[in-house]
Amino acid sequence: MFPELNNLLNTTPDQAEQGKLTLLCDAKTDGSFLVHHFLSFYLKANCKVCFVALIQSFSHYNIVGQKLGVSLTTARECGQLVFLEGLKSAVDIFFRPQEDPHPLQFLREANSGNLQPLYEFVQEALKPMDSGEAAWRCPVLLVDDLSVLLSLGVGAVAVLDFVHYCRATVCREQKGNVVALVHDSGDAEDEENDILLNGLGHQSHLILRAEGLATGFCKDVHGQLRILWRRPSQPTAQRDRSLTYQYKIQDKNVSFFAKGMSPAVL
Amino acid sequence: MAAAATCGTGTRSTGSVVVAASRNNVTSFQRRGPRASGTDSGCSRLVSIAGTRPSVRNGQLLVSTGLPALDQLLGGGLAVGTVLLIEDKYNIYSPLLFKYFLAEGIVTGHTLLVASAKEDPADILQELPAPLLDDNCKKECDEDICNHKTESNIKMKIAWRYQLLPKMEARPVSSSRFGHYYDVSKRIPQELIEASKWHGFFLPEKISSTLNVEPCSLNHGYIKLLQFIQNIIYEEGFDGSNPQKKQKNILRIGIQNLGSPLWGDDICWTENCDSSHSLTKFLYMLRGLLRTSLSACIITVPTHLIQNKAIIARVTNLSDTVVGLESFIGSEKETNPLYKDYHGLIHIRQIPQLNNLIYDVSDVKDLAFKLKRKLFTIERLHLPPDLSDTVSRSSKQDLAESAKLLGPGCGMTARGKKHLDF
């Protein structure tokens, strides 16, 4: 996790909020550093994490996680992390048809399937264990990323249904969190993606939007992060607070600074 | 893992199948690839594969694309396990890059897999450019050698210690190095092709047999191609799961014109098509196959034919490295004095961040390419000198207009609306 981002979001691993849906979106840039941040943040916060990783392999997240101070292999072995590796499972399903239902069943179906097996997998993974196991703080579902599901033939409505079910189970019942990454296609006229993004935008409590600079490429400032709080927890705070920061990604950290205050410029 | 063993008909070792629902499953399959968790011990094993080198930044195993200039722009080379997508309007120069990639595979001894729906892979291999190696250069260097021989017999009188040192080789070295140069005007010698190992997938030949996989929304041709690729990877042991074969070589896959109507895909015909997910699903499966094997893939997609822009965006997101070629032929830029020395612009649209938070970003955004008689070069775009006697305002305005057009293509960390890179 990035300490500066924790300061901006006003959280620490000890006091992570519960029952929230966080939407990560990126426009014209790569927002996967946010996924790495939340993964290591929740693992350090001693939460039980179910990670649906559809776009990269396990060792990719593991190696980056080690740079950020968490070991995914140990977390997986002791049961804190349930990792669904989409790429590997897809190859297995496609070439070796299996009898028992697999979470990524929809890959084999001809028409646009529904994500019910995936939801049941998440439900099973995050259901509270009451006997003998170490008590984790709260369950967290992390999805990287939802736009890939659209490319795989699932409709936008089906993905929204899936997120709705997950929210009902994880956020409401179990007081956990859901974090999902969606790509913003911008001017590529991807209607399904826009439906998904707008739908999730209205449901989420926190939106982190990584976008490129309006002026183009810059070596010292890699992009801009817009943080939008919706339905904040404190009643006295203003509604829909929004902040914008610029960031630079380094090898093991991401540094954030106010707009125009990049250390390279000052 | 008994649960894992019940699945499927293959004879794969049980350790290599991960049943996601089981939390205690620790796969015994350690993929021998750049994704092996972390360390120097992994790197020392991997360097021994010919034609590859570990990346300076994160130890990732890289292969050359056949163009050393392009390798440099991509941060050292193409990472093993990734897909390189070449976007070329009207498909003028992308076949050349495709052939460079395959020729590099032959020279370094990698196994090739060539898939095409239009041309027979054997014909594609015949047209590969000839490499500039020791024996090719020998004829050209012979005259030089004759000249040098007379000189070398003269004994050094003053610096006589230097006579004892071995002579420096000035010619291009043999094929154990990374990245070679090719002569586009010559064909690759037949013996090199015969000595190499390659598999061809020509769609009209393979599609005639009936398919016995249950229908899914993937195209018939794509299913066949995926099965072919998966078969080669398994049979020849590129993913380390075959107990008989211990392969320590790279599989280079080249797929031409993916998404064109010849593959049976209809995304080029209409905007809202029924099987609009065929191509993206295929790319996802291909990504899954590549990530778990020692292979690298180059694909060309006729993006000018695809009607639906959303699909192009999705294809770009599902590929790891994306290089766009914009040739000047047929556009107004052909007669523009700004571009008179070049044949087109090259944009590095996307570079993967693998095992890392950041990647090597080249500072140079304005790159142009030129196809000379023997060589395909990539250079930084230089403005031609303004040799007019008087300051002609109209020509300066034209140049400014053209410079603005360079804007949208640049930057893979961020793209903005205005062209103000600094």
UniProtKB/TrEMBL annotation, chain A:
InterPro entries per UniProt: ELP6, P-loop_NTPase
GO BP annotations, alphabetical order: autophagosome maturation; cellular response to stress; homeostasis of number of retina cells; inflammasome-mediated signaling pathway; locomotory behavior; motor behavior; neuromuscular process controlling balance; neuron apoptotic process
Main location as per UniProt: cytoplasm
Subcellular location: Cytoplasm; Nucleus
Sorted UniProt keywords: Cytoplasm, Nucleus, tRNA processing
One Gene Ontology term, aspect cellular component: elongator holoenzyme complex
Secretion signal span: none
Pathway(s): tRNA modification; 5-methoxycarbonylmethyl-2-thiouridine-tRNA biosynthesis
Cross-referenced Pfam families: ELP6 (PF09807)
Role of this protein: Component of the elongator complex which is required for multiple tRNA modifications, including mcm5U (5-methoxycarbonylmethyl uridine), mcm5s2U (5-methoxycarbonylmethyl-2-thiouridine), and ncm5U (5-carbamoylmethyl uridine). The elongator complex catalyzes formation of carboxymethyluridine in the wobble base at position 34 in tRNAs. Involved in cell migration.
Family designation: Belongs to the ELP6 family.
Subunit comment: Component of the elongator complex which consists of ELP1, ELP2, ELP3, ELP4, ELP5 and ELP6.
The protein's name: Elongator complex protein 6
Organism listed in the record: Balaenoptera musculus
Lineage of producing organism: Eukaryota, Metazoa, Chordata, Craniata, Vertebrata
Gene encoding the protein: ELP6
Automatic annotation (TrEMBL), chain B:
Similarity comment text for this entry: Belongs to the ELP4 family.
Principal subcellular localisation of the protein: cytoplasm
Database matches in CDD domains: Elp4 (cd19494)
Function (record text): Component of the elongator complex which is required for multiple tRNA modifications, including mcm5U (5-methoxycarbonylmethyl uridine), mcm5s2U (5-methoxycarbonylmethyl-2-thiouridine), and ncm5U (5-carbamoylmethyl uridine). The elongator complex catalyzes the formation of carboxymethyluridine in the wobble base at position 34 in tRNAs.
A Gene Ontology cellular-component term: cytoplasm
Pfam family, one: PAXNEB
One GO BP: tRNA wobble uridine modification
Name of the gene this protein is made from: ELP4
Keyword set, alphabetical order: Cytoplasm, Nucleus, tRNA processing
The organism of origin for this protein: Balaenoptera musculus (Blue whale)
Protein's UniProt keywords contain NADP: no
Pathway membership, UniProt: tRNA modification; 5-methoxycarbonylmethyl-2-thiouridine-tRNA biosynthesis
Subunit field text: Component of the elongator complex which consists of ELP1, ELP2, ELP3, ELP4, ELP5 and ELP6.
Coiled-coil parts of chain: none
Descriptive protein name: Elongator complex protein 4
